Amino acid sequence: MKQSIIDLTELVLVCLCQTVGPHMVDYNISIGMLCRIIFFIFSITLRDVRSFTWSELWYQIGAWAMFHLFVICFEYEYLFKGKSQTVKREARYKIFDTLQSGIGIIYSIYNLDSYYYYIFIGFFSLNCLDNIIGLLIYWRQKEKPQNHVQEGGIMEFFIGLTLGSLAVSGYLITIIVLYWFEIQEIKNLLFYLFLTVVGELIISVFSCCFIQYKENSQKIKFSKQMLGLSYGLNFGLFSIFYGFLIGLFIFITSIILCLRNSTSSSQVHTITE
């Protein structure tokens, strides 16, 4: 079947790589995920950590939550079971990408203290326009990509998750070292950061256990591997927001277990007497 080009990313892929077929959507989404990683890194490194406001944090959390909902609700079936409803995946990704680009525009307008953010506004605006045009073309097409089954990507997902969470751990440890005295002046902040680092390390260990996941290498396409890796990296980097919750859970669980053991020991001691 002839491959229809519906956006700039697909045009570049066809021109440079001669990439055609239903797996093109995997490359398209992977490139979008890598762009998110670049923006996330820039938005963190371009700013002094001490200058972040609560409103900026909520923008980041909103984009984080939207990404997780998209993968869990719409991409889980393909990523872990290999069943691709290509038409729906293409449309859903473009809608999700447009919404996230809107958040990116608002976030960049809020932070016009660097010329980088003017570039981000232009990029996100162009991306929104590209998605809208792509959706209109896509819905008017008579011939659409066929659904297919594609194995692979699971091991790469957990590799990306491990690398992303380790990168966050390294970043937080660096922040603690660089701003040690400022952090000590803020009540409980060091404790919160410590819990987050613990949570990130637990995520890393947990995901490492799944890296040995066995897949039929003869049926795996690079597009699915790239998609799995990009999703894993995004989950790993955005885990900075729930690494704290995991660390807090471990801390509370440890306290409960210690109290239960202490109570049990006291009861045994009383009976012995």
From TrEMBL:
Residues spanning the membrane: 27-46, 58-79, 91-110, 116-138, 158-183, 189-211, 232-257
Keywords of this entry: Membrane, Transmembrane, Transmembrane helix
The keyword Transmembrane is annotated on this UniProt entry: yes
Protein's name according to its UniProt entry: Uncharacterized protein
Organism (species): Paramecium octaurelia
